[in-house]
Write a structure and sequence with these properties.
about 350 residues, six-stranded parallel sheet, six-stranded mixed sheet, 12 strands, elongated
Length: about 350
Amino acid sequence: MERKFNRGPAMRDVARAAGVSAQTVSRVLSNHPNVQESTRQRVMAAADELGYRRNNMARALVTGRSKTLGVLTLATNNYSRSSLALGVELGAREAGYTVNSVTSGLSAEALTGAVSRLVNQGVDGIIIAAPLRDAASTVRRLTMRVPTVNTDGSSGISDGLVGVDQDLAAVLATRHLLELGHATVWHVAGPEDWSDSAARLGSWRRTLEEAGREVPPELHGDWSPESGYRNGLVLGRMPEVTAILVASDEMAFGVIRALSELGRRIPEDVSVVGIDDIDLAAYSNPPLTTVRQSFEDTGRRAVTHLVELIANPGMDNPPDLAAPVLVVRGSTAPPPAA
């Protein structure tokens, strides 16, 4: 009787199950960009069903390293997310790693599911580039044995926090407007469940309180220009509003559009400051005063910290928060004369 060995599934088995070539399977599993999404999903489904990725993880454990970094990002076309992802990709390439990215929605279930997929794929370390306020404890349990770096403001969910000092970003913007002579500063904040948004909101409020100024009620957007536009239509109808801090440049563009439609001149009637200093900020009308933070640099620094953690498990890794820089342009000026 012929003896049969129970071998693990091979790439050709995945290819046969998905109805594609072995080369296509290889391109999908190495995250090659030139693969149709329908093909990618079919190959991944076949690989998961056959247990191919789990078999790969076992081989990675034998060799000690997979030379792959996992990255969790949100499913969004937001400028900051794409710029940070570019920095991670470049930093990983320079360090000799490939990147396996997964995207997720904001629900706790979606976020924990995405992290679980990365852990099961046997990555050497994970960069979390998504807000996890509601899923933090579950994610922390999932990543206890995987070096993890977070770029979205919460130091309690990972081995390291890398980013930009969001408290200082709001201080710089708010003080700039107060020093120009504005009585107070209104704020269009980001989503309430984002750590960066919460940090900027709290810092804006404390800066006004320390200056002995009235703290107006904040408004919230979702980082999109459209949400900025909606809030701008509200603020533009309030004559007492002469200075606005907007939590992102993209929302600030929407605010400026709404103010202009309502006949409020920028900066003669209302001064506007954004945060991020994306490429378009210098070319808006008027050019936008903003607080610069480099997302690409954050991505590179996150990779550097993660690679060090992989090489030295348990090392002391204090938060690495870069200082933002105020960039003054044409959207801010002293308030109109009474």
